[in-house]
Amino acid sequence: MKTCGYCGTKIQEDYCSFCEFTLDDKHVLEGHKRVDHVIERTPDEAAIFLSTAELLTFETVDLLFLLKYARSYRSEVYHLRVISYKAEDRKTDQALEEIQHQSYEEYEKATRKVWVIENILKDRMGYYPVKVTEEFLQGYLHRIKQSQKKRMVLKK
Residue 15's domain spans which residues? Predict the structure, then answer.
């Protein structure tokens, strides 16, 4: 029997009378189940360089991984900036200026990507995590699995 992935109501075709709207295929389920969020892979680190429009299409859990990657990348870029400033004595003024200019541009771009991902997460979750540790990610994935177990069935 087909049921709504939001409320568990039995449905005909793809319209839920309780929710009062047409469901997409992802939300037309069988047997009062909840939408299954199977996480089989983590996103590629290079995805942090995608446009904001493309990042908006990612699942929230993928964005959490990307936030971790983006913050790590920003940290690496920052450390390269520090190294370029320490190299000040060994370069000509013009070469040093160019290196510092490029490192600042790269750091600015990395920081703005972190902000984009944080703000997408804030829109979805109401906040963005201060730290995205392996423990945080594993806990998040565990909560996803736990929330999928309970079916939406009313006992009479």
Answer: 1-35
